[in-house]
Write a structure and sequence with these properties.
The complex is a heterodimer. Helices cover 33% and strands 25% of the residues of chain A. By secondary structure, chain A is α+β, with helices and mostly antiparallel strands. Chain A folds into three domains: 49 residues, Uridine Diphospho-n-acetylenolpyruvylglucosamine Reductase, domain 2, CATH 3.30.43.10; 112 residues, Uridine Diphospho-n-acetylenolpyruvylglucosamine Reductase, domain 3 (2-Layer Sandwich); 94 residues, Enolase-like, domain 1 (2-Layer Sandwich), CATH 3.30.390. A five-stranded antiparallel sheet of chain A has the order 4-5-10-6-7. Helices cover 29% and strands 22% of the residues of chain B. By secondary structure, chain B is an alpha+beta fold. Chain B folds into three domains: 211 residues, Alpha-Beta Complex (Aldehyde Oxidoreductase, domain 3), CATH 3.90.1170.50; 233 residues, Aldehyde Oxidoreductase, domain 4, CATH 3.30.365.10; 147 residues, 2-Layer Sandwich (Aldehyde Oxidoreductase, domain 4), CATH 3.30.365.10. In chain B, the strands form seven sheets. In chain B, strands 3-5-1-12-9-10-11 form a seven-stranded mixed sheet, with helices on both faces. At the A-B interface, helix 11 of A face helix 20 of B.
Chain lengths: 264, 792
């Protein structure tokens, strides 16, 4: 780890100001990716601005037909939330299977989606449930938030404050974990909402993506059988020692069918 | 007494400190004025070192010294020695290129140490290393075992043509060929024994210290054998005599073989401490462990088994390529030869076995013994080819094994590959394991799984291994450069408490408990009165350390020999005091008693008399009660047994789930059944890891791909079902305790059981073999290929 300045802030405004002053500042939410990266000397921020003291950013509430989750809410809190479990059990299920207990007790929803790891679980929820990302500057539709591998629509100085999820009629998330890291090799969120059916895939490609052919088929008939014969092209999918693009493409179909079955 | 004696499941004495964070590992030790070392390592697999400019690093804040390979060589430091010399079949000695602690001239693998920076803090040392200007001219590299032996492969050493370390053989090839010519059926198989990273929980850690006023060095080291390190480093690398070098191996958090060897960093910190007159500590980061701890396995093998029309084995022949890595680690050459090919008879009466082994250098981390060391590789290929033969002849796998077992009345049994098995009863362990897993009921379980859309398979492995290493004259004739006896000292204190100094080293095995049970049971004294001391060359007289499941069979027997000396001396003293003839004094239950009388002295009373010798035969007997013994075993010991695995495969994803596992192991007499069960559990977990999860991967350019736990998959609790363990006993006939060893059986027996189950589950599709580890992708691909072939 290289040396850096550490600052714990108590408000979003303070964080923005600190970020503006820093030569190469980094916001830290749970630090579950940033700190290991710094330890390996792969990141060298001049300033680390710790958001864990911004109490206003943590918490879960129901607002009408939406569940609003503060950006600094830990995965374990989402998994355990009675509100989330009753309204969107698929989301609680997803959060309860991120990483391991240590990660779930430190990692946050805001940190996870801002990092936009292609194998992270939350992007499948943000896109698959049609969520809205709230920042200190604006609201960003979930579909527009993830722009590529480790890349998002966030501007410099823009800080996620919350993510709001519309309550779906039914939804389920099924993932195929990497046997070693237990990140998603393929994770599929399937949801039926008033606005239609969504199928969002994480882990398989450079960034989370939707599968329109599956969505159309499920809109006609929300059953696993409706997905028979629908394939995802392997062309743009990830390949590593654990899974080839071809295997990932196959797993998208299997996980999607299982998610539909689980959603009931 | 009964609840702490031999056979009792005594809770481990050492667990209180380990489970409460009070263990004292090397990194917990800090010496006054201690400095910290950071090792700069090669990030490329193969290169010529054009230059190393350390000037800027030397000037960096907190830096005390920077040394390179040239500095150490210039000061007369030698390379790391190899402890075993193998000869090729043409009689030529193996190629043994120099292995300097810091690279000289070339780097040969990712992680090869290039320079050491020593500073007041670790952070300063690491920071300064960035300022070292290392000019490398990259060379083509080869990491793959097969590719390294191909013509035109990049060559690591000018003096090692074709990267060939040795070309070794065992068995009579003409006799073997003749037997094959008569075969009714020949089963053939190509297989790979996957490279593994040992992953001890405690990373390697060393502190070198030097007292200039006495000229004395101390090395604190996370090792399995402090005396061996003192010999290797002192005599061969640094030229420090034993009386000026103390080696301490305190609590050690796992070794699995990887901490047997003398490593470069041990020599670097010790030599640096001498140069600087201050202690120097180095602790591996986990990523360094991946690229510098000796790896395990990495064989590529072709095997053929000849059978007659009745399924009787006529002959086996084996051809193996073994990867040595970039340099020869301490015991590397013996692993794929004398610890491997000598086991190729397995549990079977196969009359002739021939094996050729070519060992090759590659641009990878050196490979050496890892839990099982050669025997897992042998067992895997034997038990796989037996299953292939069973499949091809239509004989039930259990029946085919039974038909070929060495019968229990045939011992001692001379195998065609040098070893003489002392005792065994292979039918018993096979029966026990099959009963434990309900072999008869398997087809019903398979049918039930099929209804759920799962392929279910069962796999048997009837293994044998050789441990309790080893008779020194035998291993000496095979190329070992050391003896393999063990030493013990039993010091009875005046009040009757006992300190035992053992050359065995505990790094998770529970010696402090098992050995104390042995001593308390023998002397008839409370378990709590016995202290086991190990891991310090200044305390323990000598030792060859712990590996090859040798601690109880060899180290424990040395303790027995020393205890026998104590009892004989105490008997003389007791006879004098009790005014009886020595022949009339018997020792039992902690009492020296004149036969047929009530005249007796307790063990403690005799001890007191030996140290307060007022009424004591001083003309004939020295005071005191403190005896030593060296024990050199008469033969290897031969644990054997049967492991049976049952798996279910999800055809849609290729995920293999181990659903049932039974182990029936004959490890000889059991001192502490709880510890034995734990050893089997741990070994099975590692074996399942090799079979389903673990694989060390280098890419074609020689980069280490699996350099962290993000990609290297260790077994976790949820990868394992409850493991049924039973120990069937035949007593080893050639040591006092009748013990054989239990440390490695789990890792030896389990991989082929799991893989036979995987292949069995897929056999209906026409799958004949799946390589380890049977990852989801690999199994999915095998299913797809088989279905594609069926459709074509």
């Amino acid at each position: 780890m290289y040396s850096f300045n550490y600052r714990r802030v108590s408000s979003v405004d303070e964080a923005v100001a600190a970020l503006g002053k820093a030569e190469d500042g980094k916001l830290m939410a749970g630090g579950m990716t940033l700190l290991p990266t710094m330890k390996q000397r792969l990141a060298q921020p001049s300033d680390l601005i710790d958001l864990s003291g911004v109490g206003a950013l943590a918490g879960i509430k129901r607002e009408g037909n939406r569940i609003v989750i503060g950006a600094m809410t830990r995965h374990a809190d989402v998994a355990d939330s009675a509100e989330v479990r009753s309204a969107i059990p698929a989301l609680a299920h997803l959060a309860g299977r991120i990483g391991d207990p240590q990660v779930r007790n430190r990692g946050t929803i805001g940190g996870s989606i801002a990092n936009a790891d292609p194998a992270a679980d939350y992007p499948a929820a943000v896109v698959g449930l049609g969520a809205t990302v709230h920042t200190n500057q604006r609201e960003i539709a979930g579909d527009d938030f993830f722009t590529g591998m480790f890349d998002t629509a966030l501007e410099d100085g823009e800080i996620i404050t919350a993510v709001s999820f519309p309550v779906p009629e039914k939804a389920a998330y099924v993932k195929f974990p990497n046997p070693a890291s237990r990140y998603a090799v393929v994770g599929v969120m399937v949801a039926r909402t008033g606005g239609g059916v969504r199928v969002a895939v994480t882990g398989a490609g450079p960034s989370v993506f939707r599968v329109p052919a599956m969505e159309a088929a499920l809109a006609k008939s929300f059953s696993a059988a409706a997905l028979d014969g629908i394939t995802v092209a392997a062309d743009d999918l990830n390949t590593d020692i654990h899974a080839s693009a071809e295997y990932r493409a196959h797993l998208v179909g299997v996980m999607a069918a299982r998610a539909v079955a689980a959603a009931g | 007494m009964a609840d702490t004696g031999i056979g009792a499941a005594v809770r481990r004495t050492e667990d209180l400190r380990f489970l409460t964070g009070k263990g004292r590992y090397t990194d917990d030790i800090n010496r006054p004025g201690q400095l910290y070392a950071y090792i700069l390592r090669s990030s490329v697999p193969h290169a010529t070192i054009r230059s190393i400019d350390t000037a800027a690093a030397v000037a960096a804040p907190g830096v005390v010294a920077v040394y390179t390979g040239a500095d150490m060589a210039g000061a007369g430091v030698n390379g790391l020695p190899c402890g075993w010399q193998v000869h090729s079949k043409d009689g030529e000695p193996m190629k043994e290129p120099a292995h300097p602690p810091l690279a000289v001239g070339k780097v040969r693998h990712v992680g090869d140490p290039v320079a050491v920076v020593i500073a007041e803090s670790y952070a300063q040392a690491r920071e300064a290393a960035d300022a070292i200007a290392l000019d490398l001219e990259e060379l083509p590299a080869v990491a793959d075992t097969r590719a390294a032996s191909a013509s035109g492969a990049p060559q690591l050493f000018d003096e090692v043509p074709g990267n060939l370390c040795y070309d070794w053989e065992i068995g009579d090839k003409a006799v073997n060929d003749a037997a094959f010519a008569k075969a009714a059926h020949v089963a053939k198989l190509d297989l790979v024994n996957n490279r593994l990273v040992p992953n001890a929980m405690e990373p390697r850690c060393y502190i070198g210290d030097y007292d200039p006023t006495r000229g004395e060095y101390t090395l604190y080291t996370s090792t399995q054998n402090p005396h061996v390190i003192r010999l290797l480093m002192g005599a061969f690398v640094l030229g420090i005599p034993e009386n000026k070098l103390r080696v301490v191996g305190p609590d050690v958090g796992g070794g699995f073989g990887s901490k047997i060897y003398h490593y470069a960093e041990e020599a670097i910190v010790t030599w640096s401490a001498g140069q600087l007159g201050r202690a120097v500590k180095w602790t591996a980061e986990r990523s360094e462990s991946f690229m510098s701890d000796a790896h395990g396995r990495d064989h590529v093998t072709h095997v053929e088994l000849a059978l007659d029309a009745d399924g009787v084995f006529l002959a086996m022949r084996v051809s193996t390529l073994a990867n040595m890595g970039a340099y020869l680690s301490t015991f590397a050459p013996c692993v794929p030869t004398y610890l491997y090919a000598t086991l190729l008879a397995g549990c079977y009466r196969t009359p002739t076995v021939y094996c050729n082994v070519k060992a090759v250098f590659t641009n990878t981390v050196p490979v050496d013994a890892y839990r099982g060391a050669g025997r897992p590789e042998a067992t895997y290929l034997i038990e796989r080819i037996v299953d292939v033969a069973a499949d091809e002849t239509g004989i039930d796998p259990a029946e085919l094994r039974r038909r070929n077992f060495i019968p229990k009345d045939a011992f001692p049994y001379q195998t065609p590959v040098a070893l003489v098995y002392d005792i065994g009863d292979y039918d018993q362990t096979l029966d026990a394991a099959l009963a434990a897993i309900d072999y008869q009921g398997f087809e019903a379980r398979r049918a039930e799984a099929a209804k759920r859309g799962r392929y279910r398979g069962i796999g048997i492995s009837t293994y044998i291994e050789a441990c309790g290493i080893a008779p020194s004259n035998v291993v000496g004739s095979l190329g070992a450069r050391a003896g393999l006896y063990e030493a013990a000292q039993v010091r009875v204190h005046p009040t009757g408490s006992v300190s035992v100094y053992t050359g065995s080293h505990s790094h998770g095995q529970g010696h402090e408990t098992t050995f104390a049970q042995l001593v308390s049971d023998t002397f008839g004294i409370p378990f709590e009165s016995v202290e086991i001391v190990h891991g310090d060359t200044d305390k323990v007289l000598f030792g060859m350390g712990t590996y090859g499941s040798r601690s109880l069979a060899v180290g424990g027997t040395a303790i027995v020999k020393a205890m026998n000396k104590v009892i004989e001396k105490a008997r003389k003293a007791a006879a004098h005091i009790l005014e009886a003839s020595e022949a009339d004094v018997e020792f039992a239950d902690g009492q020296f008693r004149v036969k047929g009388t009530d005249r007796a002295m307790s063990f403690g009373e005799v001890a007191l008399a030996a140290y307060v010798p007022h009424k004591y035969p001083l003309d004939e007997l020295e005071p005191g009660l403190d005896e030593t013994a060296f024990y050199d075993p008469k033969n290897f010991t031969f644990p054997a047994g049967c492991h049976v695995a049952e798996v279910e495969i999800d055809p849609d994803t290729g995920v293999v789930t181990l659903v049932n596992f039974a182990a029936a192991d004959d490890v000889g007499r059991v001192i502490n059944p709880m510890i034995v069960e734990g050893q089997v559990h741990g070994g099975v977990a590692q074996g399942v890891g090799q079979a389903l999860l673990e694989s060390c991967v280098y890419d074609a350019q020689g980069q280490l791909v699996t350099g962290s736990y993000m990609d290297y998959c260790m077994p976790r609790a949820d990868n394992l079902p409850p493991v049924s363990v039973s120990t069937h006993v035949t007593l080893c006939p050639h040591n006092d305790l009748g013990v054989k060893g239990c440390g490695e059986v789990g890792a030896i027996g389990s991989p082929p059981a799991v893989m036979n189950a995987v292949v069995d589950a897929l056999s209906a599709l026409g799958v004949k073999h799946v390589e380890m580890p049977a990852t989801p992708q690999r199994v999915w691909q095998a299913i797809r290929d088989a279905k594609g072939a069926a459709a074509a």
